[in-house]
From TrEMBL, chain A:
InterPro entries: DNA_primase_C, DNA_primase_lsu_euk, DNA_primase_lsu_euk/arc. CDD domains: PriL_PriS_Eukaryotic (cd07322). This is DNA primase large subunit. Its cofactor is [4Fe-4S] cluster. Belongs to the eukaryotic-type primase large subunit family. GO terms for molecular function: 4 iron, 4 sulfur cluster binding; DNA binding; metal ion binding. Keywords: 4Fe-4S, DNA replication, DNA-binding, Iron, Iron-sulfur, Metal-binding, Primosome. Binds 1 [4Fe-4S] cluster. [4Fe-4S] cluster binds at C299, C378, C394, C434. One of its GO terms (biological process) is DNA replication, synthesis of primer. Residues 289-457 form the DNA primase large subunit C-terminal domain. It comes from the Eukaryota. It comes from Brassica campestris.
Automatic annotation (TrEMBL), chain B:
It is an enzyme of class 2 (transferase). This is DNA primase. Its EC number is 2.7.7.-. Belongs to the eukaryotic-type primase small subunit family.
Length: 473, 457
């Protein structure tokens, strides 16, 4: 209570010096005060929200390590190491209870807790990491002796295949010395673990490990992948069980005590998902061309222009643009008319009705399992993989420099503004690039940063309407 | 229907089929041909497909799950594009009856679900009865239209002997990786009927993979990241190739690029063609240097192929000497080779368990060709234009040369389809079933804690 929170001793224990990260395997047999129940949870939610913001802004892993370190120190620290551990464990279980209750909440909780775990793990030294791996009780052995010898050459190839210099250093005069430095760190590591490839999907996907006969050879420095997969899988299962318990016993039993707190906690922190558009943003078909030029972010403008040009979009493009338009306020009937008008020019209205109309109705929750799909946020769009014939994805990431400059020019950016944007792109800060574009186009600053195309649209409409309240923009 | 009734109906439709010199589209494929193909028991291999998809659960061992086959989703596409999803069958004969009553234009195979797909609404969506996929083969789909930017002989739906080798190389690269890297053993490659290939990995481990794991394998195979919005579609970072890419390059891609590809596509012989390649070199000076050499080269008496080879050598030499200028040039030569030859799989097909894929031994509606298996160890010999068509099969029946009995093990079966079915059985189905039965037996023994082999097959 007040006693605990008002004691602000200078904490001598750093988060790093407390090596244990709890695995949250079983609910703690601790007594929790009712006030602590809520307060601990709120502090942890602040951490999780901070993680979510960091990821949405496209921070790289090293930056996220710093973000997590700072967040944890600010909200979860306690002068007493064992109290700190208790708060960690209690707050996790409370939030788990809060966030097990719907698919959307579960997904968010799983992503954020996994990311939090990943970065806390990365902040530990190797010995602490090995200890944590040990706690999972994984049966994986280190590769030694003759087997290691036979793999050495290819393990070296893997290490060298991952060494890269960032493009921004290319023109740097110290490029040569960086080369040498990187070369020095191309040695094969001392410890490799032989693990079934299924256990490290992200290392497999990135071709960051040697794979042979179904086994992946994971370096000590890559252990984080292994444990994060285990952690995520465990939490995912736990969420399902917790949900069941909540639905069958806890909710009813606690309806006068914990249930109101739990229900209040969940609405506080899920960000707007733009599945229900607000009044600002209802658009009609006759305005759509004008609105696309004035208020669409670059990704959607590109898709829209390509649709008008080719009278067709492949599946990824249809999803990205279609859901965006839904979020912007395009009603189902208008959407069907819009897509039919375009597609009929290429494939005929009969084929449209047969092959494409169903998909649009599906997006609006009128077919299949009737899920009302939410428009994609920037993070999802950036991480998509446009292939042959596709136009979806994030132009700041997926376009070549020339094409991006041309597109930005069409949006009206000056050469100075364009350089700032291209600089962000080179450093892989795609959402910041989009934010700068927004600021340049509307002549205003956007402090929160763009992390959703519909957010871009709404902010843009707000600005334009405040300038000319009567006319359609 | 009795055998006589079927045969007399066939005679009728044979009389109706007009004598033609130029084949019209309906002659490749029509409902009457389909009735014969699915109607006779000696063409579409019903019992082989059933045995395959039962994975050893034939009810003859106490460890069998007799409901396993019934939980598999099938879908039918009928004439007039009517689409029927979530079909499931208790056993081989109900599958046969359904196919024989609908004569579908296309049959797709989906996942094995937690409950019978056609009864999914009978179960609530919560608790342990949620309708969800539990097993599904790891599948890949490679379509030659995804290579249109690097093949000059055909485009779109066409395929010919000059560009089909791209599929052959793709099979070799992926198959080697599936067996050597991932350790899979039961892999079926199938011709898609027109312009591509499908791959079915049927090991138990593969069937139980999660969507995330499937996605990881698909991304492992992914190199080409191109569309019209970027020029450098293959970007190989780092100081060397990953061992998988290195092996693919050395064993298959390099040789194919410098040999067969030059002969069939002559990718340097005209300005349009070589400009596309120059655009992949991220250094203007090198581009100009090479352009200068090629633009002005006199009309020589060399063939297109020879010109291409000369220019390739020039490019390699220039890049070799200049590769330290920038990191993006380090593996430019390899990038070019990969752009033209490395497999381009359709990622979406592989990533999700509930994705449906066309069944082997279906007939392709646009070509009339049967979707026959391809032997990955002899894929150089596969010719997509020599695959039996529906009309050829029917003619064979009419001239009395068809297979006599579907269960005949006689090696003298030389019918058009017989060879493919035989290959399916001996190279794929038999080893698979043997291994499945061993697994069922051993997991049963573990379950009941018996150490003696008191129950044998």
């Amino acid at each position: 209570m007040e006693v605990i929170r008002s004691q602000k001793r200078t904490a001598s224990n750093d988060v790093v010096s407390n090596p244990k990260i709890p695995l949250y395997l079983t609910a703690p047999p601790l007594e929790v005060r009712l006030e602590e129940f809520e307060l601990f949870a709120i502090d942890r939610l602040r951490v999780l929200k901070g993680v979510s913001d960091g990821l949405a802004r496209g921070k790289n892993p090293k930056e996220m390590d710093d973000v997590v370190d700072a967040l944890w120190k600010e909200h979860m620290r306690h002068s007493d190491a064992s109290e700190m551990l208790n708060k960690d464990i209690i707050s996790h279980f409370v939030i788990r209870l809060v966030y097990c209750r719907s698919d959307e909440l579960k997904k968010w909780f799983l992503s954020m807790e996994t990311a939090l775990f990943r970065h806390r793990f990365r902040l530990r030294n190797f010995e602490a990491q090995r200890a944590i791996v040990g706690e999972f009780g994984l049966p994986y052995k280190a590769v030694t002796g003759a087997e290691l010898e036979s793999l050495k050459e290819r393990l070296g190839q893997v290490v060298r295949s991952l060494g890269q210099i960032s493009p921004s250093v290319v023109n740097d005069i110290c490029c040569v010395s960086v080369c040498f430095f990187s070369f020095l760190s191309f040695a094969v590591e001392a410890v490799y673990y032989k693990v079934p490839f299924e256990e490290v999907p992200d290392l497999v996907a990135g071709r960051r490990v040697l794979i042979q006969k179904g086994h992946a050879f994971v370096a000590g420095s890559q252990l984080v992948s292994l444990v994060v997969t285990q952690f995520r899988s465990h939490i995912s299962k736990a969420l399902i069980l917790t949900n069941r318990k909540w639905m069958t016993t806890i909710r009813e039993r606690e309806k006068d005590r914990l249930t109101p707190i739990v229900e209040a906690l969940s609405t506080t922190y899920v960000g707007p998902d733009y599945s229900q558009s607000n009044d600002y943003a209802d658009i009609s078909l006759k305005d759509i061309d004008q609105v696309s030029k004035s208020s669409f972010p670059l990704c959607m403008r590109h898709l829209f222009e390509k649709l008008r040009e080719d009278h067709h979009l492949k599946h990824g493009g249809r999803m990205q643009l279609g859901l965006f338009l839904k979020g912007v306020g395009l009603k189902l009937d208008d959407a069907l008319a819009f897509w039919r008008a375009e597609f009929s020019k290429k494939v005929g209205s009969e084929r449209f009705d047969k092959e494409y109309a169903y998909g649009i109705r599906h997006n609006y929750g009128k077919e299949g399992k009737r899920t009302d799909y939410t428009p994609y946020a920037c993070q999802k769009i950036i991480s998509s993989a446009p292939g042959v014939g596709d136009h979806h994805g994030c132009p700041y990431r997926h376009f070549s420099e020339d094409n991006l400059r041309a597109a930005l020019g069409r949006m009206g950016l000056s050469s100075r503004g364009m350089e700032d944007v291209m600089d962000k792109v080179r450093n892989k800060h795609y959402q910041l690039a989009c934010t700068l574009t927004f600021e340049a186009v509307y002549g205003t600053s956007c402090d929160v940063g763009i992390n959703h195309p519909n957010q871009y649209f709404e902010e843009s409409q707000k600005i334009l309407k405040s300038k000319t309240p009567a006319a359609p923009v | 229907m009795t055998r006589e009734e079927i045969e007399s109906r066939e005679d009728e439709s044979m009389m109706d089929a007009p004598q033609i010199n130029k084949p019209k589209p309906e002659e490749f494929f029509n409902v009457n041909y389909l009735r014969i193909y699915y109607g006779k028991r000696t063409l579409f291999p019903y019992s082989d497909i059933h045995k395959w998809l039962s994975y050893g659960h034939d009810g003859k061992h106490p460890g069998c799950d007799e409901y396993y086959f019934g939980r598999r989703e099938f879908s039918f596409t009928l004439e007039n594009d009517v689409y029927l999803r979530y079909k499931s069958f208790k056993n081989a004969s109900s599958m046969e009856d359904a196919i024989r009553s609908h004569f579908p234009y296309k049959i797709d195979i989906g996942a094995v679900y937690s409950v019978d797909p056609d009864k999914r609404h009978a179960y609530s969506q919560t608790g342990s009865n949620v309708f969800t996929p539990v097993e599904r083969e790891l599948v890949f789909d490679i379509d030659i239209t995804d290579y249109d930017d690097v093949r000059y002989c055909c485009s779109g739906a066409d395929v010919c002997s000059k560009c089909w080798p791209l599929m052959t190389v793709a099979i070799k690269v992926i198959h080697t990786s599936l067996t050597e890297d991932f350790g899979f053993k039961h892999i079926l490659w199938v011709f898609s009927g027109r312009r591509g290939v499908h791959c079915w990995v049927c090991d138990p481990k593969a069937r139980r993979m999660t969507n995330e794991q499937r996605s990881a394998v698909a991304e492992y195979f992914r190199v080409y990241k191109g569309n019209e919005n970027n020029a450098r579609k293959v970007a190989l970072m780092g100081y060397s190739l990953h061992p998988f890419l290195a092996r693919s390059y050395v064993d298959y891609l390099k040789g194919f690029f410098e040999g067969e590809l030059q002969a069939t596509q002559s990718i340097f012989s005209t300005k349009d063609k070589y400009e596309k390649i120059l655009a992949m070199i991220s250094d203007e000076d090198i581009q100009s240097e090479l352009r200068g050499k090629w633009e002005n080269s006199a009309r020589s008496s060399l063939s297109e192929e020879a010109i291409s080879l000369v220019r390739w050598e020039q490019l390699k030499n220039t890049l070799q000497s200049k590769k330290h200028k920038a990191p993006t040039l380090r593996m430019c030569v390899e990038e070019i080779v990969f752009t033209f030859t490395y497999p381009r799989i359709d990622l979406e097909v592989s990533k999700q368990m509930n994705h449906l894929l066309k069944a082997p031994f279906c007939v392709h509606p646009k070509t009339g060709r049967v979707c026959v298996p391809i032997d990955p160890n002899n894929c150089d010999d596969f010719d997509p234009l020599a695959v039996p068509t529906l009309s050829q099969l029917i003619e064979e029946i009419n001239s009395g040369g068809s297979r006599m009995d579907v269960d005949d093990d006689d090696d003298s079966d030389t019918s058009l389809l017989g060879k493919s079915i035989k290959f399916f059985r001996s190279s794929f189905l038999e080893p698979l079933l043997k291994s499945c039965k061993e697994e069922i037996e051993s997991s049963y023994k573990t379950k009941i804690g018996k150490s003696k082999d008191s129950l044998s097959w």
